[in-house]
Amino acid sequence: MRHLAVDIGVPDEADARQLSEQLVERRIAAGTRTGAAGVPSHYRWEGSVHERTYYTVTALTTDEQLDRLYAFVETELDDDLPPITYEPFEASEEYLDWVESNTGAE
Question: How many domains does the structure of the chain reveal?
Fold first, then answer.
């Protein structure tokens, strides 16, 4: 099992806070961190360059929850392609156990 820090770009601060809470309530993530300030983002979409401000929600989860996380975020955000990236992380065994025991089915 891999432990993942998943970054999710959310265009509204209130929506970022709500998504953060819902990911934990649904046990998709053991915990989350929400960026305090929006960050301008520039990207190419459908042939033109766009600018949009995003708040970042970082969800601490496992690779076993990644499909659930993608599916949930896609239903909650209006983006055609929600900005989601992730990377594995290492931590103490106690912390990794906490992530595992607080994700998935109860």
Answer: 1
